[in-house]
Automatic annotation (TrEMBL), chain A:
SUPFAM superfamilies: RING/U-box. CDD domains: DRWD-C_FANCL. Keywords: Metal-binding, Zinc, Zinc-finger. PANTHER family: E3 UBIQUITIN-PROTEIN LIGASE FANCL, UBIQUITIN LIGASE PROTEIN PHF9 FANCONI ANEMIA GROUP L PROTEIN. One of its GO terms (molecular function) is ubiquitin protein ligase activity. GO terms for cellular component: Fanconi anaemia nuclear complex. This is RING-type domain-containing protein. GO terms for biological process: interstrand cross-link repair; protein monoubiquitination.
Automatic annotation (TrEMBL), chain B:
This is E2 ubiquitin-protein ligase peroxin 4. One of its GO terms (molecular function) is ligase activity. PANTHER family: UBIQUITIN-CONJUGATING ENZYME E2. PROSITE patterns: UBC_2. It comes from Coemansia umbellata. Coiled coil: none annotated. The keyword Transmembrane helix does not apply. It holds the Pfam family UQ_con.
Length: 302, 155
């Protein structure tokens, strides 16, 4: 639709001066015709009024305007509050610029064609499914020393915990799975026995106890208090690209020589070793030297 | 984001949080547009004839960094056995064969700073300076270097 049709649909929203892309006025909402004040700096109209009315309509009937938390200045993103059964608040974003829905529950965005009501239903179902996971993660966040992620989002179902001076554990929760997945990272001499303990304690997770009590029962020693370590104390980042997660992969290739224990991403390490003349290769396994301590390091490319 | 950009932003963050050394006066990208071009200014180390001078380095980073080393060249003319006086090219093993991703731009600059006080006359790019050192004429070497420092590099 063109600008003329747009302005015909919103009689209380006149264009400003000579620029048809700028407008300042009111739009009516709902049957009792409440008005909200709207200022537009750049109007771009891509769809028919039907498309927008459907979303307004869905807001009206399904979501309720009470739950609309805010609009951003450009009127491009509408934020809706979704409250699940456990009374947890989640934000849903309706992005009119890129024409999609997204939320802090789910990283993936969904096209507007999907329908707001349907999308909210999917999210409600997801909340129900993840309620136990979030309860566990909330417990972990408040009682243990979490190194990463620094400001966890609801969609992030993993935590990196400090375990001891040199080791950290990756805890991942999976919906519908009774106990979290735990992997310990650090120098081989520390991480290997701890991982064996985790393996031995499989199926022993007791949902009635706190996360701390469960983990301490597995490792058999007290875990550090929240805030007693920060990220710098425990090496988590890949020694080559300096980031922790790259292309959804952890820096889980750890130099096995003891004081070094430098983590790398598999991809980064392979990339480095293939440029070195003293690296030997057998099929997809590379035998070379750690770029930090020059001790032998072995990596298999996927 | 390309991994090279991510790593360089991390390095920049670390430099701003913890400045690497008093003698590294500036170290950072030349402009906001291109993070692959950096600039450093080193203060000449005390107890050397470079003392009192400020030396500017141009740092070009390839998109293969840190698998490939960065290229450091002196912009300020430097009289040093391992620096080409005309082009500013530096001969330093860690910038070539002994490079490792464990080095950062900050530690590389420190290595260049250290090279100023610890020349290696057996692999020279400036034969005149190297020959003075090789025949043991420290007095001659020092006065030659401080002459050039005063001529080109005064702070």
């Amino acid at each position: 639709m063109d600008h003329i049709e747009f302005y015909r649909n919103f009689p209380l929203l006149p264009p400003q001066s000579l620029d048809p892309l700028k407008a300042d006025g009111y739009i009516e909402i709902g049957e009792d015709q409440q008005c909200i004040h709207v200022g537009m700096t750049e109007l771009s109209v891509k769809h028919t009024s039907k498309f927008y009315s459907r979303i307004i309509d869905e807001c009206d009937k399904e979501v309720g305007w009470d739950n609309v938390e805010s609009f951003d200045k450009e009127l491009q993103i509408m934020t809706i509050m979704l409250i699940d059964e456990a009374k947890k608040e989640h934000k849903v974003y309706v992005d009119f610029a890129s024409e999609n829905f997204s939320s802090d529950i789910d990283e993936n965005s969904v096209s507007m064609e999907f329908g707001l009501k349907k999308y909210m239903d999917v999210l409600r179902k997801k909340c129900e499914q993840l309620a136990d996971c979030w309860a566990l993660l909330d417990d972990v966040d408040s009682s243990l020393c979490v190194l990463q992620p620094q400001n966890p989002k609801r969609s992030e179902l993993w935590r990196r915990l400090a375990v001891s001076d040199f080791a950290s554990a990756l805890l991942e929760v999976v919906p519908d799975l009774f106990c979290p997945q735990i992997t310990v990272y650090g120098p081989n001499s520390i991480a290997a026995p701890l991982n064996a303990k985790v393996k031995g304690a499989r199926g022993m997770w007791n949902g009635a106890l706190s996360a701390r009590a469960n983990l301490e029962a597995i490792f058999d020693f007290p875990l550090p208090e929240p805030g007693s370590f920060n990220q710098k104390d425990i090496k988590l980042e890949c020694g080559i690209c300096f980031s922790y997660r790259a292309e959804n992969e952890d820096a889980d290739q750890i130099c096995s020589s003891d004081p070094c224990a430098q983590p790398f991403h598999r991809k980064c390490l392979v990339q480095w070793l293939t440029t070195k003349e003293d690296t030997r290769q057998s099929y997809n396994t590379y035998f070379g030297k750690c770029p930090y301590c020059s001790e032998n390091i072995i990596v298999t490319s996927k | 984001m390309a991994s090279v950009t991510k790593r360089l932003l991390k390095e920049l963050q670390n430099i701003q949080r913890e400045p690497p050394h008093d003698d590294i006066i500036t170290l950072g990208p030349t402009s906001d547009e291109n993070i692959l071009q950096w600039r450093a200014v080193l203060r000449g180390p005390s107890d050397t004839p470079y003392y009192g001078g400020a030396f500017e380095l141009r740092i070009s980073i390839s998109d293969q960094y840190p698998i490939q080393p960065p290229t450091l060249t002196f912009v300020t003319p430097v009289c040093h056995p391992n620096v080409n006086f005309g082009t500013g090219e530096i001969c330093l093993d860690i910038l070539k064969s002994r490079w490792s991703p464990a080095w950062t731009l900050a530690s590389t600059c420190l290595a260049v700073h250290l090279l100023l006080s610890d020349p290696e006359p057996s692999s020279p790019l400036n034969c005149d300076a190297a020959n003075l050192l090789r025949c043991g004429d420290t007095v001659g070497y020092n006065s030659l270097v401080s002459f050039y420092t005063r001529m080109y590099a005064l702070e």
